Amino acid sequence: MIAKLTGRLDESAEDWAVIDVNGVGYLVFCSARTLSSLGSVGDTVSVFTQMQVSENDMRLLGFAAGEERDWFRLLTGVQGVGSKVALAILSALSTAELREACARVDAATVARANGVGPKLAARIVNELKDKAGAMPGVAGGLGGVAVSALVGGASADAVSALENLGFKPGVAAQAVARALDELGDGAQEGELIRVALKKAAG
């Protein structure tokens, strides 16, 4: 299975790009956020990928970050959410916003995405609230750390590092939140990762 592509951006449109890898052009469907991050035609780009195969279709999805691909997998695991709807959600919301919406069971935020009605949005947040990690800073959270504390800086880098090591997005976020609560807001990325790994493993 193709997990990642690195090549030259050959062309792009509203929801897809063609990436030329050693003379082979891969058609990759992407969210608007990923497309905007790829740069200009002719630039060297790299995307994480997910292959989807159905009876009538086979398509390659591309993501600027592994975290976005993880969220795509979570979203498409919800009944009624196909690849197009998942990409629409990831176009409308950053992964941090989506994580917070699920943690707060905030269907209205998810419903901002094109093609997502109130009922589907409610199903998404209800099914993913635990998988996304009952986020810190809300009921059932850990240590009173605000969700926003994980959005940027060393905390976000630490969450990404844990995800790259194979931890689910929600597990990684919870572990970093607990580490941040223990170490304080000024903690450095390396220390956060070290402590968060212990929390996640425990």
UniProtKB/TrEMBL annotation:
The Helix-hairpin-helix DNA-binding motif class domain, residue ranges: 73-92, 108-127
Region of interest (Domain I), residue spans: 1-64
Gene3D superfamilies: 5' to 3' exonuclease, C-terminal subdomain, DNA helicase RuvA subunit, C-terminal domain, Nucleic acid-binding proteins
Keywords for this protein: Cytoplasm, DNA damage, DNA recombination, DNA repair, DNA-binding
An example Gene Ontology biological process: DNA recombination
UniProt xrefs under CDD domains: UBA_RuvA_C
Region ranges (Domain III): 154-202
Superkingdom of origin organism: Bacteria
Subcellular location: Cytoplasm
Keyword Plastid on entry: no
This protein's GO CC annotations: cytoplasm; Holliday junction helicase complex; Holliday junction resolvase complex
Note on domains (UniProt): Has three domains with a flexible linker between the domains II and III and assumes an 'L' shape. Domain III is highly mobile and contacts RuvB.
Record's function text: The RuvA-RuvB-RuvC complex processes Holliday junction (HJ) DNA during genetic recombination and DNA repair, while the RuvA-RuvB complex plays an important role in the rescue of blocked DNA replication forks via replication fork reversal (RFR). RuvA specifically binds to HJ cruciform DNA, conferring on it an open structure. The RuvB hexamer acts as an ATP-dependent pump, pulling dsDNA into and through the RuvAB complex. HJ branch migration allows RuvC to scan DNA until it finds its consensus sequence, where it cleaves and resolves the cruciform DNA.
Quaternary structure note: Homotetramer. Forms an RuvA(8)-RuvB(12)-Holliday junction (HJ) complex. HJ DNA is sandwiched between 2 RuvA tetramers; dsDNA enters through RuvA and exits via RuvB. An RuvB hexamer assembles on each DNA strand where it exits the tetramer. Each RuvB hexamer is contacted by two RuvA subunits (via domain III) on 2 adjacent RuvB subunits; this complex drives branch migration. In the full resolvosome a probable DNA-RuvA(4)-RuvB(12)-RuvC(2) complex forms which resolves the HJ.
Name used for this protein in its record: Holliday junction branch migration complex subunit RuvA
Organism: Aurantiacibacter xanthus
